[in-house]
Amino acid sequence: MDFFSGGIIGFFFGFGFGVGCALAVMYSIYTGGYQKAIEDSLREEKSDRYRHWLPKI
User: Which positions, given as ranges, span the membrane (predicted)?
Assistant: First the structure.
């Protein structure tokens, strides 16, 4: 394996898996808490938790 083919494989693994893992982490954060926080903030009747944390933000 010469330098060029090793560089191509390294670039693919580094960039492809790196971006894929970053997207997976961002998606898990979004589905875990961020999405629930957005839904909670858009409701007409605000929850106690929302009213508790709003002044601290």
Answer: 6-30
pTM of the entire structure? 0.43
User: pLDDT of 16-51, one tens digit each?
Assistant: 788 888 888 888 888 887 777 788 778 788 778 777
Q: 11: which 2 tokens?
A: 């670039």
Q: Is the dihedral of CA 17, 19, 23, 26 positive or negative?
A: positive
Residue 26 CA to residue 11 CA, distance in Å, equals 22
Cβ atoms 1, 10 nearer than 8 A: no
Please state, in angstroms and rounded to a whole number, the distance separating the CA atoms of residues 39 and 45.
11
